[in-house]
Amino acid sequence: MAMAYIRVLAISILLLLASINLPKVTAAAVSEEAPGSGSYQFELIHVDANGNFSREQLIRRALNKARMRGAMLSAAEHKEGDGDRDRDDTNSGAVSGSFSVPVQYSPYTYIMELKMGSTTMRAVADTGSDIIWTNQHMDCIGNPSFTPTNESCAKACLDEKKQCITCMINQTYGGGKKMKGFLGTETLALPTGNGAATKDVALVCAIEWSPEMLPEDGQGVVGLGRGPMSLVKQLRVTQFSYCLRDPLDAALRSPLWFGGNAQSAAGGKDGWRTTALVEISTERSQLPVWAENDYYVQLDEICINDECSGPFKQEDFKLKSSHGDGDKGLMLVDSGCTYTHLDTKIFDALKSVLYRALGVTVVEKDGMNCFKAPRSGGKPDLVLKFPKADMSVPWASYVEEGEQDFCLYILEGRWSILGNFQQHNVSMLYDLDKKELSFKRVEECSSLTK
């Protein structure tokens, strides 16, 4: 019954999108010559850099936001009667060349600075969504480069006395967060190592949105998922990569690359570990259909000091693949979640591994999972084992050392999520064509931008 409802709703959405005459995005001329590796550098600043927060305060702020994100994602589980996120199947124009844009850490996620028309847009960079939108609706109407799909309807939507239906895009995010706005096209500046280029992209100008979705200085969201309206898809690139510095470093600078140089700029051709991006079964995972556009990998096992959890079973995970009952469970790779979350059974397995490897017992204390100083074993890496690729997470990236206690930067949750804290100083390469995720630890991300 629920799936039948989803199909009917999906057809209705497609008819609605067709009725508003979605624009076909065309590409501006862009140089075919790719810029040199690291030829264009952006300066990216931690949103708390000027907040005079102590390290402990920064950790607590990140912890609170991580829990909020985890709760928001968990609340996205499908229930009969929930609406699906509106999506567009319009093909975008091709674009050649490579370019990079700034990414800035925040307790919510990371911020990209994009030149849209004559204004600069500071928007959340989100691998977990696939629409570009801004809350600066007056800039949309006042900017001659913005072309509403239906100009008269767009202007009417700004009049609270009038109802807008056919020209509206309604998007529902995890946890019931919503955005409503009118669709149009806007000119996006693409900084490259050889100068700047432009391209028209589909942009939603929001007139209603959930305020808690954005940091204080955020002006919208840039979807980096696999859906047809995401920035990745609209630019017609098959690869993008980023490298995130320690989120607790106030001097944070983090690069993000799109296009042909995504791999070379993020660390060259050698030393990468590669695993498959796995398709999720939204029905078996009880999620809305839009969740299929996010990025998932199969998590097989967790190890510390050669002590391993043993192979995980699919029933241990909330997120399940679309390849049959015999496959393993999935972990979401999320740039918008600070700390890693693990399903309850996976988290219990981690505690068991910590006990066997270090002789420590993990207990909850003040909202964190903590233990006393290890009796032996040093300060080993935590190893996440994916098919054909192991990710080693250094001690400092998963354990906070206090005066009396050691606490985990890993939370128990309803989903398994690879958070951005555990990704710092790791080049992450997404290949949408090959359906692969590659990663490579680097000494310092900022060295890649020079």
Radius of gyration: 22 Å
CATH homologous superfamily placement of the largest domain: Acid Proteases
Q: Return the CATH topology of the largest domain.
A: Cathepsin D, subunit A, domain 1
CATH class of the largest domain: Mainly Beta
Q: Top keywords for this entry?
A:
2 domains, Cathepsin D, subunit A, domain 1, globular, disordered N terminus, 7 helices, alpha+beta, 14-stranded mixed sheet, 450 residues, 4-stranded antiparallel sheet
Can you summarize this structure?
This protein is an alpha+beta fold.
What can you see in these coordinates?
- The protein is α+β, with helices and mostly antiparallel strands.
- The protein has two domains: 24-82 and 97-265, Acid Proteases (Cathepsin D, subunit A, domain 1); 273-449, Beta Barrel (Cathepsin D, subunit A, domain 1), CATH 2.40.70.
- Helices cover 16% and strands 31% of the residues.
- It has seven helices and 27 strands.
- The protein has helices at residues 2-19, 55-74, 137-142, 151-157, 231-234, 262-265, 344-358; strands spanning 98-105, 110-116, 119-126, 132-134, 147-148, 168-172, 178-192, 195-209, 220-223, 239-243, 254-259, 273-276, 296-298, 301-304, 307-308, 330-333, 340-342, 363-365, 368-371, 382-386, 389-393, 399-401, 406-408, 410-412, 417-418, 426-431, 436-441.
- The strands form five sheets. Strands 1, 2, 3, 4, 5, 6, 7, 8, 9, 10, 11, 12, 26 and 27 form a 14-stranded mixed beta sheet that branches. It has a four-stranded antiparallel beta sheet with strand order 15-14-20-21, covered by helices on one side.
- The longest helix has 20 residues, at 55-74.
